Amino acid sequence: METSATIKKIVIVGGGTAGWMTAMYMADALIKKGVEVWLLESPMVDIIGVGEGSTPPLQKFFEAMNIEEAEWMPECNATYKSGITFDNWSTKPGCESFFHTFVSMLDNFTMPQFVKNVQARVNGVDVYAHPDRFFIAHQLANRSLAPKPNHNFPFEVWYGYHFDATLLGKFLHKKAVQRGVRYKSCHVTHANLDEHGAIASIATKDGETIAADFFVDCTGFAGMLIQKTLETPYVSFKDNLFNDAAIAMPTAIGDAIPSHTVSVAMKHGWAWKIPLTNRYGNGYVYSTAFCTPEQAEQELRERLGLLDADVPARHLKMKVGRVTRHWNRNCLAVGLSQGFIEPLEATGLLFIQRTASVFVEYFEAGDMSEAAREKYNRQINDAFEGTRDFIVTHYKTSSRTDTEYWRANAANQNLSDSLKQLYEVWTSGKNLGAEVKRQGLDQYFAIVSWYSIMAGMGIFPDNPRPSGMPSDGMEQVDNLIARSLVNFRDHREVLTDIPLREPNTLKSYFF
Fold this sequence. Notes:
Blueprint: E1 9-13, H1 16-29, E2 36-41, H2 58-64, H3 69-75, E3 79-81, E4 83-87, E5 97-101, H4 111-122, E6 125-126, H5 136-142, E7 145-149, E8 160-162, H6 165-178, E9 182-185, E10 188-193, E11 199-204, E12 209-211, E13 214-217, H7 224-229, E14 234-236, E15 245-251, E16 261-265, E17 269-275, E18 280-286, H8 293-304, E19 314-317, E20 321-323, E21 327-328, E22 331-333, E23 339-340, H9 348-365, H10 370-397, H11 404-411, H12 417-427, H13 432-438, H14 447-456, E24 465-466, H15 474-485, E25 488-490, H16 491-496
Parallel strand pairs: 1-2, 1-13, 2-9, 4-16, 6-24, 13-22
Antiparallel strand pairs: 3-8, 4-5, 7-25, 10-11, 11-12, 14-20, 15-18, 15-19, 16-17, 17-18, 20-23, 21-22
Helix pairs in contact: 1-6, 1-9, 9-10, 13-14
C-alpha cells in the first residue's frame, strides 16, 4: 500500500488564497512530521482575487490556525457577513426580495415554526411563510448590526466574512512562512513526468528543475499540473449554469457598513455588492451567450451610477465545472485548477478549505493508495455536484422571464436526478427536509437553506385556502427576535474593536 511515509517534500505551485490556505494546513499538520513544504509563486501571473465573501466554515479555519479575528480582519479590510440578500430574482408579489441566512443556535427557537408554516403553505394553506421574519440574521443585516453578540448573550450567531481576497492571500503568505513553509518567487513553465506517469519535477523560466514527492496545483484556471500535465478529464457545468464571465468594479462606502452581501438579478445574470471597511466590491456575473462584455459593463455602470466615472472595470472569464479527479497520482488540485462554480453563494473558499483539510486528514491517516484517492475524489465531486444543484435552484425557481437569458434558464431541463427528485417532493407537498437529508445534501447546504430559497422565491400554490390555525406563530417569533436584537452592536463600531473569540457560546443548530 502507498503511504504518506514516503512523502518528504511537497511543492505547491501557485499562491493566492488557494495556495496559501493549503500551505497553512500543511504547515500546521505536516511540517512537524518532517515534511518539507515549498510554495512557488509566479511574479508574472496576476491573482484572480475577486471572490470577497465566505461562508461560516471559514471561522473554523482561523480557529484551527489559532488566528484571532482581531489580527487578520483589519489587515484584510474584512467585515462580518450575516447572509445574502437576493433582490429581483422573483417577480411574485411579496417575494421580490428574500434573505438567505446563516443559521445558528438561536434559530433553533424559530426554525421549527418556519418549517411548519412553509410546509403548510406548500400544501395550499394561507399562512405567513416568507423566510425573512424568522431569522435574526436578516434583522441584523437590515440594521447594519454585527453578528457578534455582547459577552453576556449565551448564543453565538453563525456568520461568514467579506474581505479583500488579495490582502487575505498576503496575510496567509506571511503566516505560512512564519510557520515553516519555504517560499520561492519563480515562474513555472512545465512539469516533468517519471516512468510511471507521476510528476517527478517542475521546471522554471530560469532553467531550474525542482523535484518533489508530491505536488499541489494552485495555478488557477490554467490547471498546469492537474489538467495540462496529467490530462485529468474535466466535467463542464455549462449546460446547467450559463454564466461564464464577470466584471468587477469598486465603489465608495458610507458611514454605515452593512453586514450582508446583496445579489441583484440583472438582464443577463446577477450583480454582487460586498461591503469592506474601505469600499464596496461590486461585480456582474453574466453569460456571454446572451450579451457582450461591453453590454454587460454598460449595464453594471448604469446600476452603479458610474457611466461617466473614471473607474476601470476588470473583466474576467470563468470556466465552470470540475476535474474528475482532484487528487490524481501524486498531485492535488486546489482552487480554480480543480473546478469553479459561480460565486452566487460564496462557496469558493469553502471548496479550498474542504479540499485541503480533508487531504491533510488522509495524509495523516497514512493511506495514499488508489482506493484512498478514489474515496477522496468521490467526496469532493459530491460536494461540487451538491453545490451546483443548489446554485441551479436559484435559476429554476426564479419567475423572471423578461429577457432571453431568464427564459432560457426557465426552459433549461439539464437537471440532475437528485434535483428532479427534490422538486417532485416539494411540489407534492411532502417533507423536503427529509429528502434533503436522505440524499446527504445537508452536508453542503443546511436543510433550512433549501426551505428558504423555495419559500423566498414564492414557489407555492396559487389561491391558498384559509388556514383555520389558531396562530401562525409569528407573534412569538417577532418577540424573541426583538428581545435578542438588543444584544448586538453597530457593525462599524464592532470592527473598530473586534472582540476575542468566545469559547463557551452555544453553536449547535438542528436544521
